[in-house]
Amino acid sequence: MRVTPEMFFQPDVSSTTYGSYHHDRQSLGRLGDGGFAEYIIVPATNLHRIPEHISYREGALTLPLAYVIQSVLLRTTSVRPGDLAVIAGSGTVALLTLQILIACHATTVVIGTHEDSHRLAVARDLGADYVMNMETRDIGALVQDVSIEGLGSDVVYECSGSDTAPQQLLTLLRPGGRYIQMARFTQSIHWDMNCISSKELTITGSTEPTSESWIRAIRLMKHGAVKTAPLLTHDFKLSQWEQAFNTVKQKLGIKVLFRPHYQKIGSITNRESRDPDHHRRSE
Questions:
Q1: Cα separation of 134 and 123, whole Å?
Q2: DSSP type of residue 28
Q3: Euclidean distance between the first and the last CA atom of the chain, given in angstroms as a whole number
């Protein structure tokens, strides 16, 4: 059986309920070995079957996809068909958020910086309506131009973790708009609370996916509504952890995978990224 493990669980399994949040939920890696171990022990109730046409590599992104679904659709219904949605960032979470918004028939704007150029190209290939380098173009002018009556974006998603992004995103929102915080910050941020009050904005966030979001993630992958293969750019063995972390730090790819029994290293080939069964045959 080919499965993907749900990383969060209840100490008392009998108390777990579908779609609800529990303050005492724990995760693999906190109480024992996590993703850096060659093998891990997972409660059977946390296992979800991977559809046959989804490779192990593609299935490895079930966790971030489940988190995105929890944040965008389940914790609060943040998007509606026809909404103008701005995504700050171009990493894995941002590109998965983009695909969910496209599936919800929103008009999408993805913004990044010069060092994100290769990631922004992936966002364009995935179907983003507008892709912008905020260092060279005026994002405010674009949002005003494409929004209804020039009022601003209906919803924004902060996926970059940049300490300057929150305040800028607030200025892009229309009155009554919705701000969703998805990234984590390494330091305290500052923003204009008067803007939140005067515009009557709704600010929400999310932290952990649930069983429901995991089930929905696999379902969306199964039917092709979300594609994870274009986000998988590098594979490393556990012994190459330093090279893997440097790849992430330098933003040389998008998503880096650790594969204990994998022989090839570095970036994958175009054929491998297009053929989901290639890695299944070579494992």
A1: 15
A2: T
A3: 15
Tell me whether residue 269 is exposed, middle or buried, using C-beta atoms within 10 angstroms of its C-beta: 0 to 12, 13 to 18, 19 or more.
exposed
Tokens 């590599």 appear where?
57
Contact present, 181 and 163 (Cβ < 8 Å): no
pLDDT, tens digit, for every residue of 139-172?
999 999 999 999 999 999 999 999 889 999 999 9
Secondary structure of residue 71 in the 3-state scheme: helix
Q: Please, where are the H alpha helices in 110-255?
A: 117-126, 139-146, 165-172, 193-199, 211-222, 241-249
3-class DSSP assignment, residue 80: coil
* pTM, entire model: 0.85
Domains of the chain: 1-62+209-227 (no CATH), 76-205 (3.40.50.720), 229-283 (no CATH)
Reading the block at residue 221, the tokens are: 């992958």
Specify the pLDDT at position 189. 86
Burial 84-94 (b: 16+ CB within 10 A, else e): bbbbbbbbbbb
